[in-house]
Design goal:
This protein is an all-alpha fold and 146 residues long. It contains 8 helices and no strands. Helix 1 packs across helix 7, helix 2 runs antiparallel to helix 3 and helix 7 runs antiparallel to helix 8. The longest helix is centred in the C-terminal third of the chain and has 20 residues. It starts with a helix and ends with a helix.
Length: 146
């Protein structure tokens, strides 16, 4: 969950930079070309999806594809042509990691629902996780961390 949230935050920060400077799209296309040269059959579906959005769809559609909050969006972000280090500075990456940890700490500090108290470990409801995902998208798509 934490890694998926960090990936979402990084993708949102990269999407924000793409909105500000669409010439950065070439970096993602280059990443896709390198990835396609590998020809891993297990990632073919993801490569095709990214190719479609990078070459055939307008930038707002690509941004939405990058920052999709669904479980499928999480899976897609595990296999994408965007290299965070090609788009984000070390300080931006560090800020994202720390901020996402803070958001999860806040989530874990919230009182557990009554029906959860019988469990020995902290159970996170999907709606709680979705709220954190939405907050990450709003925060990191709205402003690129510095």
């Amino acid at each position: 969950m934490l890694i998926d949230a960090e990936n979402l935050a990084m993708e949102c920060a990269m999407a924000r930079k793409l909105q500000e400077d669409s010439s950065l799209l070439e970096r993602a296309k280059e990443g896709l070309r390198r990835w396609e040269a590998n020809k891993n059959p297990h990632s073919r579906r993801y490569r095709e999806g990214w190719r479609h959005f990078l070459y055939e769809r307008p930038l707002p559609d690509l941004i939405e594809y990058m920052t999709d909050l669904s479980d499928h969006g999480d899976a897609r972000r595990q296999a994408d042509p965007f290299s965070p280090s090609a788009f984000l500075s070390k300080s931006e990456l560090d800020h994202i990691t720390e901020r996402v940890k803070e958001l999860f700490a806040e989530l874990l500090a919230t009182p557990q629902p009554e029906e959860c108290r019988e469990f020995s470990s902290r159970y996170i409801y999907k709606d709680q996780l979705d709220a954190v995902r939405q907050r990450i998208k709003e925060e990191f798509l709205e402003t690129v961390p510095v």
